[in-house]
Amino acid sequence: MPELPEVETVRCGIIPHLINQRVKAVYIRQPRLRWLVPNELASQIPGAIIEQIHRRGKYLLIQTNRGTLIIHLGMSGSLRILSTVDIAGKHDHIDLKLSNNKLLRFNDPRRFGAWLWTIDDALLHPLLASLGPEPLTPNFNGEYLYAKSRSRKTTIKQFIMDNQIVVGVGNIYASEALFLAGIHPAQAANLISKQRYKRLADSIKQILNYAITVGGTTIRNFSDSAGKPGYFKQQLWVYGRKLQACKKCESLLKELRLGQRSTVFCPKCQKKK
DNA sequence: AGAGGTACCTGGCAGC
DNA sequence: TGCTGCCAGGTACCTC
Question: Which of A106, A122, A133, A250 has its C-alpha lying 20 to 30 A from A41's C-alpha?
Answer without folding.
Answer: A133
